[in-house]
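S.,

As promised, the adenosine-5'-diphosphate run. Input:
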Amino acid sequence: MVNPWAVEFWRIVGLLSVALVIGLIAGHGLTWVVVALVLYLFAHLRNLYRLERWLQGAAGFLPDTGGIWGEVYYRLHRLQKRNRKRKKRLSAMLSRFRESTAAMPDATVVLDADGAIEWWNDAATRAFGLRYPHDTARPLTNLVRHPDFHQYMGRGDFSGPVQLRSPVDERIVLSIRVIPYGKNQRLVVARDITRLHLLEQMRRDFIANVSHELRTPLTVIAGYVESLADSDDACMQPWSQSLRAMQQQSTRMQQIVSDLLLLSRLETDGDEREEEEVDVPGLLGMIRDDAIALSQGKHSIGLEAEPGLWLSGSRSELRSAFSNLVYNAVRYTPDEGTIEIRWASHDGGACFEVQDTGIGIASHHLLRLTERFYRVDVGRSREMGGTGLGLAIVKHVLMRHGSELQVDSEPGKGSTFRCVFDAGRVIRSAVAASQAQ
Ligand code: ADP
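Predicted complex:
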């Protein structure tokens, strides 16, 4: 390929030589060389002017010329062609992306760094009632006014979804998730989970109804079995062992039914229950006495409770949760073991802890412990009179009190069940504290 710079060089050498020869013939050699240089410079200035006009967009086409400028124009032309192709490809990609996002069944809204709406798909129009172009650049929180959504967006922790009813249709339940991307931009994705919600509701209602329906017949059966077992009638003698077994099983069934009822109440009752001031040290004193009775002196059961450290919540629910944890410690700790119950201030809030020197739990069970009917050892749980629902109840009660269950355990060494309540729930009762001193 010919080097354009070499061509340009020979061009200028040729021009100057011709000017010099003509100048020498005419008797003004230098003048002709200067004139040739000025013309050469003028030609460059003209090309520069054309280029500048073209860059400004005033000229549609690049001029067709030779020499070094021809080469520059040719390269610019190629660059322009390549850019046009790339732009076409990008816009095709963008429209494909928009089409696919628009076709998505999940509502999708793109928010800028200030939380204002940049773009949304058709499903978002249906889910949030967004109108184009009216709602463009408006904050999404101005359009979805649900307090849970405001709290979720304000918290900035988008690890989990938030559930709420569609602002357009109360019957639609949405699970909304925020995905941060780019420079503080956010993608809001809302999924219609109405069917799932209804199924969940049906499941809860079914369990509540079945438990409720079973309660009365069970009470009657248990009553009869008890009177027969307690009867002194000699003809009942051969049946005494079977009757005791029946009595034990009916008591267990009653316990399961009452735990199931409690669980469905915890699940279905909203957060609108009445808050009480719960004297936790006093409550734990009672639970400890019950635990001692359950243990029948086979364990050492200690209680350290900070006087005056009360909680705002439901007394009966907290009693259920704390007693389940303490009774489990008694049931899963062999004789002569030690159980420590602690209640103390913790990081401005309060911490409840039950530590035992019992059989412990292998780490792979820990994540599933709070599932209904999940037991590490089914036989042992039944033998101990367990229903497999205790920790599920604990989980729900704690959730309703803004806390969660933490478990540390080592098989053969023992377990520690802990829950931390935040400062907002803690009440410091000066009267109770001074009484305790
Ligand atoms: P259960 O009525 O069977 O005790 P829970 O829901 O209370 O049901 O507990 C679930 C399972 O967790 C139990 O079956 C038991 O295997 C295990 N578990 C609970 N507490 C303890 C503990 N303190 N030590 C060892 N295992 C425990």
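Residues 324, 328-329, 332, 356, 358-359, 361, 369, 374-377, 381, 386-392, 415 surround adenosine-5'-diphosphate (CB under 6 Å). The chain is about 55% helix and 20% strand.

- D.
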